[in-house]
């Protein structure tokens, strides 16, 4: 979820006209009655029969322990016309009895923290409290941020439904899409979207309240928003336009927010929502953890389903591919047809709605990108300790289950309609079984879960601080996460959590997961901060600051890209002491900051208005940002047939890639030419699912590329209206000279990602065969076998990223001409005499004055041809 941002202008309310529906926001100041339907254009119902909202509007009613009393500050009251059954559901939520406490705190303090277990109703209810208390109007709305796109979409739908309002009023905005209108009063969005809005309007004048949800997840952008909002709240107070900030967290560990003097000089009040959690019995595995945790999950689900009383099962796995594999396996083991089969003795459940089985076409479980945020002694309990002995390893494959199992996948990239299925009750008599990644840990609460099966693992992206090499690794979750997962079992009645690891292993888990900002490169964060004129990023009040090392690395990259002034230069210009960590932003940097992509790619875009390269550069950058356009075909096959089919598809994709890469000049652009070819060809075919399927492309990824191309085109036009760019989805292939220009643009953007093929003297050692050297790594790196340059192996290349699997592999490889390096990447080269020294240069070997530098090296001393600089 890199560089999340929104092209929000088009979709957002400008000065919206006052809503003209009765009761939209015109409740009398202190008397909440009579409520009117919120729908626009309806007559109020006859006064003799108060609508459900009359009861609905006083949420404490009906909970005996909290008799209603008037709010301390009865602000405007905006009636909501909820359906009675919705209201009944709401009243069961623990947070309802805290409404007064929360709203009083909000009225009295600018910043309030609300902590409550997952499922206590924070996300769905707090925005409604705020709405009812009049914290929104036609020109200032309630904003709610979520770290995950899934949650932003799902929660806006849910809240609209609960309030009986349309999504024109309760809306969402995520990176590529949204349904915000001028009627919008509650806007759910990803945290990146709000960050982009701050760049356009630092005071966020369009909001009366901002709710930062899921603050415990400590996503990078939520952390940055916390720091920024702490300032914005103060600024707004000075201008007498108070802004309220609510921070919502699923855990009580909020010291990073409350004990942080720099962030909040006056610690905000913390309101704890008592959870109505039922006891969950935790069962650890006796044995040491298994490698095959997915298989173990399968066996455990089978046992639970056959042996234990009714109640939904929730399984935690680490990624999309695993989720799909387990879903398939479970569906095979408990086929839907069993319920209908003759002789089936389930007389009480004759009617299974087979359409409700969400069956994904086999093969859709493609690749794993879950770790973005996306990113886990009693042996199964004595009551469950069954002998698996004679069942064999896959004994569960043929269980004698008469009860149908309603198997549903859940992960963040799942289409929203599919995600919504987990919230619906399963077909009558069937047992719900949701196989999820850690999206289900805190962001989404699935009703009716009684059993949790926790593999104890999570997939995380790891970055090497120094080299930037990233790898996805499956690691143990933290204790806090494991407890969150267990908690999912006790929502409606006492439950059980089966942990597929021993209690000793649990004891070794880290207590809390480290905040994301401490785990990844921060060049995008630093660039965005600089664009907000936060020059000394090191002094910014992060809840947990990134390491100085990471900040220095980011600043150095940005200086090299020309986005920040180099310290010498800055010092010369401002005659000030400018340390390495406070370099001001350049014009180029400001331009780059407006593009919603990583700085390296933003640099390419900023340079690309030449030789007619803009549309191609946009397509390449969009394709690189979306990542993994091609289906993952290296996955292990479950059967002989699948293996054959995978092999066939691999061959087909390799052929298609060669065709897209072309020959000669075009092939030198390498994998980026393939991306360009894929985007172009796919658009010619109308971006149809069939075309994608036939060519091994991921349909969803291609749609995302299309959207991002549109968004980048808009962004380029905003910076440079003279470019007069319009998105022509269908591109002619670039000419030969355009390809060369594109290669140079790519080199300019990926200047720190240059690799050079090892020279013959290194080849004594077998491990260096066909290897490349990079300035930052001691180990050999290789061109990935899926690259079209795998057989070409040019001397100099730039790569998109290095991913470590069995070896260090470069992905997204493109060939570079040696003479370009000093010319395009002077900041990465050492010149002798140095570049700063103007004037003619004496060349001792030739005994005369030349305009040439006598020696030039790329970073670690790779000699380059001398270059003319004058
Ligand atoms: O944010 P928090 O974890 O505190 O709770 P929430 O997301 O507001 O969820 C409150 C309740 O609404 C849970 O019991 C969910 O199961 C339920 N819910 C639902 O039934 N359907 C949805 N689409 C979303 C939430
Ligand atoms: Mg929530």
Question: Characteristics of this structure?
Answer:
7-stranded parallel β-sheet, 6-stranded parallel β-sheet, binds cytidine-5'-diphosphate, binds magnesium ion, 27 helices, 870 residues, alpha/beta
- Please tally the helical runs, counting DSSP H or I stretches of 4 or more residues: 27
**Overall pLDDT, averaged?**
79
- What fraction of the residues are assigned to beta strands by DSSP? 5-15%
Within the largest sheet, what's the order of strands?
A: 3-4-2-5-6-1-7
Given the C-alpha coordinates, what overall shape results? Answer: globular
Low-confidence stretches: 1-74, 337-400
Question: What is the percent of helical residues?
Answer: 25-40%
* Strand element count: 25
Largest sheet: 7 strands, parallel
* Gyration radius, in Å: 29 Å
* Bound ligand species: cytidine-5'-diphosphate, magnesium ion
Class from helix and strand fractions: alpha/beta
Give the end-to-end Cα distance, rounded to a whole number of Å.
43 Å
GO molecular function: ATP binding; helicase activity; hydrolase activity; RNA binding
Protein name: DEAH-box helicase 37
Region (Disordered): 1-72, 357-401
Domain Helicase C-terminal: 289-533
């Amino acid at each position: 979820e890199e560089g999340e941002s929104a092209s929000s202008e088009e979709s957002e309310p400008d000065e919206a006209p006052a809503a003209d529906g009765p009761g939209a926001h015109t409740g009398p100041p202190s008397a909440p009655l009579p409520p009117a339907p919120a729908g626009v254009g309806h007559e109020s119902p006859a006064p003799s029969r108060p609508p459900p909202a009359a009861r609905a509007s006083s949420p404490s009613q009906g909970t005996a322990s909290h008799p209603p009393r008037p709010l301390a500050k009865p602000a405007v009251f905006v009636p909501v016309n909820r359906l009675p059954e919705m209201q009944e559901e709401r009243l069961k939520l623990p947070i309802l009895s805290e409404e007064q406490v929360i709203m009083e705190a909000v009225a009295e303090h600018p910043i309030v923290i609300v902590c409550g277990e997952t499922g206590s109703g924070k996300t769905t209810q707090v925005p409604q409290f705020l709405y009812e208390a009049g914290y929104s109007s036609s020109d200032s709305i309630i904003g709610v941020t979520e770290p995950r796109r899934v949650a932003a979409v799902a929660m806006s739908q849910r809240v609209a439904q609960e309030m009986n309002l349309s999504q024109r009023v309760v809306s969402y905005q995520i990176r590529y899409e949204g349904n915000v209108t001028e009627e919008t009063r509650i806007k759910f969005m990803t945290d990146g979207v709000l960050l982009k809005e701050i760049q356009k309007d630092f005071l966020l004048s369009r909001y009366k309240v901002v709710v930062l949800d899921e603050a415990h997840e400590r996503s990078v952008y939520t952390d940055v928003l916390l720091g920024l909002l702490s300032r914005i709240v103060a600024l707004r107070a000075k201008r007498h336009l108070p802004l309220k900030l609510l921070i919502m967290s699923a855990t009580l560990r909020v010291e990073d927010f409350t004990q942080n003097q720099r962030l909040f000089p006056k610690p905000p009040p913390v309101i704890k929502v008592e959870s109505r959690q039922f006891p969950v019995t935790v069962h650890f595995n006796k044995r040491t953890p298994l490698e095959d945790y997915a298989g173990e999950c399968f066996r455990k689900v089978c046992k639970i389903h056959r042996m234990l009383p009714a109640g939904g099962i929730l399984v935690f796995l680490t990624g999309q591919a695993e989720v799909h594999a387990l879903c398939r396996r479970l569906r095979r083991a408990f086929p839907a047809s069993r319920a209908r089969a003759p002789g089936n003795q389930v007389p009480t459940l004759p009617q299974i709605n087979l359409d409700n089985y969400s069956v994904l076409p086999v093969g859709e479980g493609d690749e794993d990108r879950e770790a973005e945020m996306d990113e886990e002694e009693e042996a199964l309990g004595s009551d469950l300790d069954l002998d698996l002995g004679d069942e064999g390893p896959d004994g569960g494959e043929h269980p004698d289950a008469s009860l149908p199992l309603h198997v549903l996948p859940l992960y963040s990239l799942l289409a929203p309609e599919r995600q919504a299925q987990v919230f619906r009750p399963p077909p009558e008599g069937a047992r719900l079984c949701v196989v999820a990644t850690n999206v289900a840990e805190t962001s989404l609460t699935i009703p009716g879960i009684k059993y949790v099966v926790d593999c104890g693992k999570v997939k995380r992206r790891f970055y090497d601080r120094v080299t930037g090499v990233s790898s996805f690794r499956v690691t143990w979750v933290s204790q806090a996460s494991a407890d969150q997962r267990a908690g999912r079992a006790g929502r409606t009645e006492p439950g059980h959590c089966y942990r597929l690891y021993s209690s000793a292993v649990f004891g070794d888990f880290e207590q809390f997961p480290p905040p994301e900002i401490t785990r990844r490169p921060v060049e995008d964060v630093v660039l965005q901060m600089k664009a907000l004129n936060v020059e000394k990023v090191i002094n910014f009040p992060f809840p947990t600051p990134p390491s100085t090392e990471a900040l220095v690395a980011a600043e150095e990259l940005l200086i090299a890209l020309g986005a920040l002034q180099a310290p010498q230069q800055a010092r010369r210009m401002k005659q000030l002491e400018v340390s390495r960590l406070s370099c001001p932003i350049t014009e180029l940097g400001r331009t780059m900051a407006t593009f919603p992509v990583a700085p390296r790619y933003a640099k390419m875009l900023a340079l690309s208005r030449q030789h007619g390269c803009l549309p191609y550069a946009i397509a390449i950058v969009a394709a690189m940002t979306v990542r993994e356009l091609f289906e993952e075909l290296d996955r292990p096959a479950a059967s002989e047939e699948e293996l054959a089919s995978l092999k066939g598809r691999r061959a087909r994709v390799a052929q298609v890639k060669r065709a897209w890469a072309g020959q000669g000049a075009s092939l030198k652009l390498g994998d980026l030419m393939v991306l360009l070819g894929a985007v172009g060809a796919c658009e010619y075919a109308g971006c149809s699912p069939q075309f994608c399927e036939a060519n091994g492309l991921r349909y969803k990824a291609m749609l995302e590329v299309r959207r991002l191309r549109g968004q980048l085109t808009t962004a380029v036009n905003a910076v440079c209206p003279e470019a007069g760019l319009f998105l022509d989805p269908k591109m002619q292939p670039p000419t030969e000279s355009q390809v060369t220009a594109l290669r140079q643009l790519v080199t300019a953007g990926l200047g720190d990602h240059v690799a050079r093929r090892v020279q013959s003297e290194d080849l004594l050692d077998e491990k260096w065969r066909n290897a490349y050297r990079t300035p930052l790594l001691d180990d050999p790196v290789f061109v990935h076998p899926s690259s079209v340059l795998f057989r070409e192996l040019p001397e100099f290349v730039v790569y998109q990223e290095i991913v470590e699997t069995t070896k260090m592999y470069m992905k997204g490889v493109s060939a570079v001409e040696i003479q370009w390096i000093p010319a395009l990447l002077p900041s990465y080269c050492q010149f002798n005499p140095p570049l700063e020294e103007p004037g003619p240069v004496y060349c001792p070997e030739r005994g005369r004055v030349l305009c040439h530098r006598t020696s030039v090296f790329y970073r670690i001393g790779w000699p380059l041809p001398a270059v003319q600089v004058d």
